[in-house]
Write a structure and sequence with these properties.
Chain lengths: 147, 147
DNA sequence: CCTGATATGACAATATGTTGTCATTATGGA
DNA sequence: TCCATAATGACAACATATTGTCATATCAGG
């Protein structure tokens, strides 16, 4: 039955995420960062987004990203710029120091992803990713929410 | 390149896990529980395992599971039983109240998984799960750890 | 029995993330 | 303009999970 297959899929996905977060922390460690900070730094590099917009892009709670962004701002890795469109919602941009740290992380990440990805075909990875994305979309739209 | 496919795969997996945890919290909410407590309750039902063994089975840090287990024990949902093989490592078992709560959760979970699983074939879900499991195995054995 | 390595639970510090609440700022309609 | 609604940041409380440290218990080898 698909329900059982789905349950097994979900359990595996949760465990995998734990491993990936740990791996990301290791990749970010040489730059004095973590997986979560890395995500915010990457969003800051894109630029033109407020904290709330970054939170939505990352699929996280606004307040959690705000706390991280405040820490990164305190460390000088990102900066808040005035937003002509909104007085309160400052735009997040990467500082030079932040860009340097992000560069270190992404260099390590590229090698890491190449090493792990070499054990798979792009088709395998893409197929798995598409299934995960479809599940996510269903969860976002609230399907089967009532159980 | 597979590295890029792998990076996209990893990012999607992390976001999916956030959604799955949130969905699990909703499923466990009527029983006054959360995703994490649910996992410990399910492990307790299997029986014959200490806290440290449960932590290894779930792929979590021993100390985190210990804290959860202590809370569940305080609420009377699990109980610590003497372990003839080890004086300190008590065995975790489910109480009647714990079993009742777990039953409520799993009833809701079964319907939820069936509803979501219906949009996929078992083959799709299994293929995605196998890729995730292979990635996990590589991460556990430390391949490409050095980046 | 003794010793060193390992396993376990206790405790603390920290990181991440959620929910809730509040005041302020935009936004859109009457 | 006025007002209701939504968006945003600030702040707090809580849940989850990791790392580190410590004392004790277990185990393997001599």
């Amino acid at each position: 039955m698909e329900g059982d297959a789905f349950s097994a899929f979900a359990i595996t996905a949760l465990r995998l995420a734990g491993h990936l977060t740990a791996a990301g922390d290791q990749l970010a460690k040489p730059a004095g960062q973590t997986s979560a900070r890395w995500q915010v730094l990457a969003a800051a590099r894109r630029g033109g987004m407020s904290v709330a917009q970054i939170a939505r892009a990352l699929g996280l709670a606004r307040q959690g990203v705000q706390r991280l962004a405040d820490v990164l701002e305190g460390e000088g890795l990102i900066a808040y710029a005035d937003n002509p469109q909104h007085q309160r919602a400052k735009l997040v941009r990467l500082t030079e120091e932040g860009a340097a740290r992000l560069g270190v992380i992404e260099l390590a990440q590229a090698g890491w992803a190449d090493g792990l990805g070499a054990a798979f075909t792009s088709a395998e990875l893409d197929a798995a990713r598409v299934v995960m994305a479809r599940v996510m979309e269903m969860l976002e739209t609230g399907e089967a929410a009532g159980g």
